[in-house]
Amino acid sequence: MADGAMTATFLAVIGGASLLAVTARRLRPVDRLPSLEGWALADRSLGPGWTWLLLGGTIFTAYTFTAVPGLAYGNGAPAFFAVPYTVIVCPLAFVLLSRLWSVARRHGYITAADFVRGRYGSSPLALVVALTGILATMPYLALQLLGIRAVLTAGGVYPRGAAGDLVLVALFAGLAVATYRHGLRAPTVISALKAVAVFVSLTAVTWLVLARLGGPGPVFDGAARRLGGPALLLSPAQQPAYATLALGSALALLMYPHVLTAGFAADGPRTLRKVSVALPAWTGLLALFGFLGIAALAAGVRAPRGGAEAAVPMLVDRLMPAPLAGLVFAAITVGALVPAAVMSIAAATSFVRNVYVEYVHPTATPKRQVRIAKAVSLTAKVGAVAFVFGLRDQDAVNLQLLGGVWILQIFPAVAVGLFTGWPHPRALLAGWAVGMASGTYLVVREGFSSTVPLGTGARPLEVYAGLAALLLNLAVVVTGTAVLTRLGVPRGADTTGLPSRLTVRRRPETGANTP
Hints:
- By secondary structure, the chain is an all-alpha fold.
- 71% of the residues lie in helices and 2% in strands.
- It contains 21 helices and 4 strands.
- α1 runs antiparallel to α9, α12 (257-264) packs across α16 (322-360) and α20 (425-445) runs antiparallel to α21 (465-487).
- The termini are far apart.
């Protein structure tokens, strides 16, 4: 059970987050009429500092900060695929986000589906991109609540029974009100507190853990003994799964609507390039969280069966002074609020722009669009709470795992479309369908495992299911485009102004080749 000092520190940080949310309207105020761009993207006005805080706070969720150390606690080395995966994201963001921002700003696009609609002139393709994003986002949103509950329960801050549920609802209610009123500006200002709390608390916890356990050497030696072998060595059989998980997860991450929403809120492509270079600082945090999972194993922490994500909170509760433990638990809680808010905003924006306006009310005024988006955002949060209370935790984990596979299937339409308009929209639709079906089948067949065996024999190759499905998707796109083009099947008009073919031009001032 949490003592008074821990609870006081926890409440102080949460209270600070609430106060910051109230001041969100002061973040770069613009004297304009209500618009979806203003509510969902903060009028595309965020500079490098705010964009770094928001994008990092959105990508690195609370569940990430509990799932990675939980996986390290249970499996050792394979958990650290998340470190190269988030490193790979940085150059991808440098290229993709800045290019997509430029097109979106020029044409007033707010979502990835807007870009797809303009690039290929295909409403059905834009619709499946939007619906896939919403479908993949909802279980991810629910996982933020699960991350909060797991951390607070392990630390004794979460009361049992209905009282604990009310605490969770109250935390989310404050976020819902702030987001409803101020849109993306609310999670943006809270992301500043998240960064300070997480960086400070994690640095202090890592230092104390190393001091208590005798340094990194004894930590890894102790973890190796408990795992029955080297804790940080991959076997040859694990290496393909490790590599494909890192690559596939990196490709999928930038397709999530909440990540694109955070990127679209920047004030220019130069800002996004600067932020992409600085994002590895957040990756360092993730590596330290993974290390704490190894430390929990070395310290003899006994997490409950099926609850490895509680290992690090239990380690913190055991070794840390009460105020510092309260700061850690509050930091992870605030860490969930930022991505949860952005996810709900992104899902609502996709629904309004690409479903409501496109198919229900094409003449909706900007004010009405904002009103509908606010209502959908609030509904998404309520749905996440109901999901958490109504289904098993493992159900949310399984759906989020499928969500990562699903969102990867829009990569050809969005990312490839930034550089070439050669793919035929009907081929992209067929490839998406094949990728969705095959990815879902592979994951479900293996009992909701992210890696699946490919090939025959005694030792088939283990690879990431999403990447295997993406390869099938791309094969269908290439083959289908070649056939449809030869048959002369018409395609929609491209209104983006991007090149229809991938070309390389030389910049005269630098001599560098750029696409």
